[in-house]
Amino acid sequence: MEKIVCACGHENPLGTKICSNCGRPLTEEGKSQKVLDMKYDGSAIRSKTHNKSFVDKVWNFFSSVKVGVALIIILLVVASIGTIFPQEFFVAAGTEAGKALYYETNYGSLGTLYYNLGLSDLYSTWWFQVLVGMLGVSIIVASIDRGIPLHKSLTKQRVKRHESFMRRQRIIAEGAVTEGDPSKTLYSVEEKLKKMNYKVRHDGSALLAEKGRFSRYGPYINHVGLIIFLLGVMLHQLPGMHVDESMWIRDGETRAIPGMDGYFLESKKFILETHDNDPTTAQIQQGVAVIAKNYQTDVVLYKQSDDALPGETNNLEVVKEYSIRVNHPLEHDGYSLYQMDYRLNELKEMTFSLTNKETGTVLGNITIDLRNPKSEYVIDENTKVELMEYYPDYTGFNDEGKPQTATPNPNNPAFIFNMITPEKPKGEISFVAIQQTVEGSGASENTYKMAFTGVDTINMSGLTIRMDKTIPLLIVGGFIFLLGLAIGSYWNHRRVWIEQLADGQIRLAAHTNKNWFGIKKEIDALTEYAHLPQYVDQLVDEKEKEKKDE
Amino acid sequence: MSLIDISGNLLFVAFVAYLVATLLIGGSIKSAKPDGAAGRATKWGQLAIIVTIIGFLAHLGYFITRWIYSGQVPVSNMFEFTTAFGMFLIGAFIYMYFMYRVTALGLVALPIALIIIGWAAMFPREVTPLVPSLQSHWLTIHVITAAIGQSILAISAVAGLIYLLKVIDAKKKGKERFWLEAVLYFLVIIVGNIAASVAFNVVGYEDRYSYINKDEIELQIIYNHPPIFGMNESTAITEGAMEPLIEMPAFIHAQKLNIVVWSLLVGTILYVLIRLIARKRIIELLNPLVQKVNLQLFDEIGYRSVLIGFPIFSLGALVFAMIWAQEAWGRFWGWDPKEVWALITWLFYAAYLHLRLSKGWEGKKSAWLALIGFGIIIFNLVVVNLVIAGLHSYA
């Protein structure tokens, strides 16, 4: 590969801006600058040296900070578009048509446009994920591109730097010692710098004091953390990495836990508590009568014994009893059960009396468990009620004139009974739904009817079951990210180069990657202690200087 | 006097102290003429800082007494959170002051905190009982850390505004002058919002209306500002209530729109009055106050506050938020609008840092970015909480 040979004889790779040996600027641009660009310490970065093959071009694209920032800005704008209207997962509509209707009725033609463009489910679109992926690639490539050369140039720093390097630093001092014996200057400089926790190295009459070099690695560390985090998010989507199920459970019921094989959950009771405060102004304004205080399900977690068959509920072993509350999930074996929803006063049982329509005589009552209806209810040897059909969530008749049910949940139960009585041993058919009794063909001739007498309700609790194997990876990634961020932000890399020239004059240059205010305070202290010539900040506006002098 | 009254009084003390401190800082800069009065200027400045610290302690007193009274960290409704944000902003200013010893920061930081606290006081001030999802120690940890991060980031906008006030020539026509004046006009609009609310509150304006919402349900609503815009099919319940000038369709919340329009109206009148009386743009009025500031230093303060604030913001607004979300709902991220806007804020400051480090965006460019960043933070506070519906919605 081509090399740039510096005046000092050192060979630098092509693209190097500052000689890694003596510090002379190697480019015309650098030579004309008043203050050197110390980014990556002038080392050659790959993207600036290779630009031939296709791989190089792709590499250079992703290594560009300009591209990285553009990706950040695009993501930011796109993400904000997703908050204009609620995303689909916040919309309580099951079907595509229902969702389309939701956006139309609530947000008019803009809503329809939003839905049709796919913006209503923006964060799961392929192009959004591609954008995030591209940002991830950009982070990896840019970090390698810059991190490695930077590491190399930081680890092989020479103490002595050429005057063209020193004079092009932002902070520079040249001149004679203001007081005392110049031969002791370097000694007292070193003493003071060591007190300020600098690491000092010598090379003849030159010294390099450095501290906080590790902070230069901060950005690379936090990028590693981000990549690990993004990796975790990607892994999350692989099958088997996570469980996300939900279940409804009634008070007193024991059910298998979906997604958590071999485990059963018994709900003892769902509890809803409300605050008994006087309504606040905000409550009145929003028409909120009471504020919820606690959602809780008292449960027992069971495990099947090891030799049990799937679904077998005998011989369940108690694992633990727990009260699941919001913010206090039940945790076991990597799984967590969260309190998510509830329904009060769900229909549990309905009671009917078999009644003679004319005389009003009641032959007996039957109670139907709406979750587990029996096929027949015997009142005495000549009297029984057969449950011929059961529609737990009756929604009317379909096109063929048959009753239909929307869900298996008893939200709106309807029944077809066959009433067998001493008078009608063959039975009479009756269709019964809430608020209506439609009797079968020729039903008006029925002698008996099933008169609704009562209903028993029960509370039920909605729980979600989650397990995510990627969480440890996310924690590691998040931790490394924060660590790197703190290292890069709260520490800075300060360097002071000092050389005593042959005539006893002092030349001092200083650089920090950030917080110039802080390094100047240190140089001030050093200058005073070792009686050094006053430094100048070459970037401070000339005008400012004039004003200061006034 | 009960604890909650003491708490309210302490907040009032803090407000007055910040007001006095603003005037003192103004005085310190005014008297800093090159006539050898520099010593006097420092004294005024030091006095201003002392008064600010007294105000901050009173503010902290408000926070703690309210916490003890209600038994819950006072950051759970709009009034509480915004007041706390104002407190952290002052705290961040004091911290930065002791780091760099520049009183001029207070010239912008204090009035902004005053506006924020004043605006907060327009919301219902009662203690709101916590819904189950908010009953977690993560409420304290997440909200306080995020708010501290935001307030330190806000200091970069304070430094940026001062930087731009000095560097942009108020006499030269151009985009920069226009937008900087627009920023200050926006601040006047918020003052207009407060002024309108206070004025109608003083005269005791309150009318009730019933209206039909988008689900065809009849609801009631209270107007505390005379209705320019009425809700869908609204009818007055209060006798002799004013008829709305314009009735809005159901998908627009006309009562909120009404408040916005009143703020714009009063704010614009205020702005026009300022322009008529001073015969100058506001930036031109403020320009003499910032003539003394060291641009290089303010650029660095702006950058430094992003450096300090960004990790804290990341920790509070993203990491702690994810931990809490995982604990409450079993998913660390749910694309809730507030979450998305926290991510947007984070991405924005990430872009700021990359532009500054690699593209050399310093000085003016950096200052503008800092102002935009603060705009995003305020958007997240105001629009996301009050307009966009979601888990964090207070509306």
UniProtKB/TrEMBL annotation, chain A:
Keywords annotated in UniProt: Cytochrome c-type biogenesis, Membrane, Transmembrane, Transmembrane helix
Main location: membrane
Bilayer topology annotation: Multi-pass membrane protein
Subcellular location: Membrane
Pfam families noted in UniProt: ResB
Domain ResB-like: 65-524
Claim: Transmembrane helix is one of the keywords in the record: yes
GO biological process, one term: cytochrome complex assembly
Entry GO CC: membrane
Keyword Membrane part of the UniProt annotation: yes
Residue intervals passing through the bilayer: 58-85, 126-144, 220-238, 471-491
PANTHER family: CYTOCHROME C BIOGENESIS PROTEIN CCS1, CHLOROPLASTIC
Name of the molecule in the record: Cytochrome C biogenesis protein
Species: Ureibacillus manganicus DSM 26584
Lineage: Bacteria, Bacillati, Bacillota, Bacilli, Bacillales
TrEMBL record, chain B:
TM segment ranges: 6-26, 47-69, 81-98, 105-123, 143-166, 178-200, 259-278, 306-325, 340-355, 367-391
Residue ranges occupied by any Cytochrome c assembly protein domain in the UniProt entry: 87-392
One GO biological process term: cytochrome complex assembly
InterPro entries recorded: Cyt_c_assembly (IPR002541), Cyt_c_biogenesis_CcsA (IPR017562), Cyt_c_biogenesis_CcsA/CcmC (IPR045062)
Molecular function GO labels: heme binding
Topology within the bilayer: Multi-pass membrane protein
Pfam families noted in UniProt: Cytochrom_C_asm
GO CC terms in record: plasma membrane
Places the protein is found: Membrane
Keywords of this entry: Cytochrome c-type biogenesis, Membrane, Transmembrane, Transmembrane helix
Highest taxon listed in the record's lineage: Bacteria
Keyword Transmembrane carried by entry: yes
Name of the protein in question: Cytochrome c-type biogenesis protein CcsB
Originating species: Ureibacillus acetophenoni
